[in-house]
Every structure is written in C-alpha cells, then in structure tokens.
Amino acid sequence: MSDPASLSATVAGADAMAPALSGPRGPKPRRRFSRRNVFIYGTLIVVALYYLLPLYVMIVTSLKGMPEIRLGNIFAPPVEITFQPWVKAWAEACTGLNCDGLSRGFWNSVRITVPSVILSIAIASVNGYALANWRFKGADMFFTILIFGAFIPYQVMLYPLVILLREMGIYGTLTGLVLVHSIFGMPILTLLFRNYFTSLPEELFKAARVDGAGFWQIYLQIMLPMSLPIFVVAMILQVTGIWNDFLFGVVYTKPDLYPMTVQLNNIVNSVQGVKEYNVNMAATLLTGLVPLVIYFVSGKLFVRGIAAGAVKG
Predict the structure, then answer these.
(1) What whole-number distance in Å separates Cα of residue 15 and Cα of residue 107?
(2) Under a CB-based contact definition with an 8 Å cutoff, are residues 231 and 101 in contact?
(3) How do residues 253-277 score in pLDDT, each as one tens digit?
(4) CA–CA separation, 183 vs 144, rounded Å?
(5) Tell me, what's the pLDDT at 27?
(6) pLDDT at 7 (0 to 100)
(7) CA-to-CA dists, residue 186 to 124, 189, 191, 302, angstroms
(8) Among the CATH numbers 3.30.70.20, 1.25.40.10, 3.30.450.20, 1.10.3720.10, which is that of 103-308?
(9) Which of 285, 288, 291 is nearest to 235 (CA)?
(10) Closest CA to 268 of 107, 29, 61, 122
(11) Which residues form the ABC transmembrane type-1 domain (predicted)?
C-alpha cells in the first residue's frame, strides 16, 4: 500500500498542474477575416475609392492633350503623357487681363499665408496658455466671447470689416487680408490651445511657479517644448483654411494681389476661347498642392495633437 503522505503530495501536485494541462486561458483569438473585419475594411476601401476617383480623373486629365480628352474616356490613362497643361497653368494661362498663369497668385498666397499663420498661432497659443493656467478676472467671459466668435458666419462680417479696413487705410492690401485671417482664426485656435494646455500635468506648472518662474518663462521654457503636436494641428488648420480661402481674397484685395484661389476661379470660369480642361485640372492640382504636402508630411503629429486637444473642455 502506498504511503498516505506521498498520496497527498501526488494529489496536490496534480491539482497544481491542472491549470497548465487545461490549456491557454483568456478570450479566443479573433479570426483575421471575420465578417466584422470584412465589413469594416470593405466599407473603408469603398469610401476611399469614392474620394480618390475624382483625384485620379484630375491627374490623368491634366496629363492628356486636348485631342485625347475630346475622345470622351475620362477614366482612361493618357496614351501620350504631356506636361504642357501644367506649364501653361503655372506661367501662361490668362487670369483676367494678366496672362502669367498662377505664378503671381502663388506668391501672393505665400505672402498672405505665412504671416497670417504665424500671427494667429502666436496670439492664440498665448491666449490658450493664459486661459488654462493663469486664471484672471473675467477669464470665463473672455473665453465665451471667443467661442461665440467661432460660430459667427463670415458673410455677416464682410461689410463691417470693409469699413474698418478702409478707415485704417489698409483696405485692398495684403496687410488688411492678413489681419482678417488672423482675427477669424483666433477663436478655434484659442480653444485648441486651451484644451491642450489644460491636459498637461498641472504639477509642472506649480513646480515652475514654486521655483520662481514667471508668465513668459513658463510659456517659453516649459509649455512650448511640450506642445509641438498642437502647434502642428494649428498650422495645418490655418494653412488649409487660409490657402484655400476665396471669399476674403476676392473681397479684401485687388486684382494685382489676388491669391491663388481667386486666379484659379478666373482660369476655370473663363469664357474666352476653347475650354481647356487639361489646363483647368492642372491649375486645380497646383492650387491644392501646398496644404496636401503639409498634411502628408506632418499627418502623425496632426492626429496626436487633435486627440490631445480634445481631452478636456
């Protein structure tokens, strides 16, 4: 007969090994090609194709000559690739009385976009920093007014701003348009920066205050180095909005200072001569190239920043 002590040890050992012998535990691994995944990825592919199809048509049309375009097959790739439509759209197409293409409008857009983006982001970041970390009397009212301004239709403010810029002596100038873009970008950018700065650890701010750091020292040495994602978000939003703007450009400037979008409208809607669809498509792609490049270069930071800026309200 076996010893009771050894029998007890054997039973205890068997009980200890039972979980290991019973196999892996936890949720069952999902199949890669389940119905749910097929539906989700299938929907995403269909939506992506829906949005990419017009871009494909624009690209292939811009690389065709007019005789090939007249055949009517807009989805067919070009038989003979030509970049002449791109050259004409950039340097030769007529935009009103001038026939220098989009080149003049491109540099006008650069002169409008760069200072507008820098000015609006600089002011809005300081506003958001002050509203998040330096509570002053009337801060809530100030923030409410800013947010209210984000929902005012631009068209309501067109004529009052015309009068204001005229009285300031900057109506019809690039300076006036830069000021308008900076003002209208302020509310939404301030909201983004305030939410982002609120999401940062408050202990950093308190520790800096204990060490004797002031308003600007904390902003420049602590907040800015930690805020690259939200600055990228603000830059992409402002570059996209200002570069693609048509309404303010046509209202607050004059023909010699028209931005690229206004010149594109003049090219596409021209009623003189033959309708050159390849030139129109090339001009449209050239106009949208800058915001697309900026977004694709900094897309990851954009996603990080927009998520961080939406953590707190």
Answers:
(1) 79
(2) no
(3) 988 899 999 988 888 887 566 788 8
(4) 16
(5) 63
(6) 46
(7) 6, 5, 9, 19
(8) 1.10.3720.10
(9) 291
(10) 61
(11) 106-298
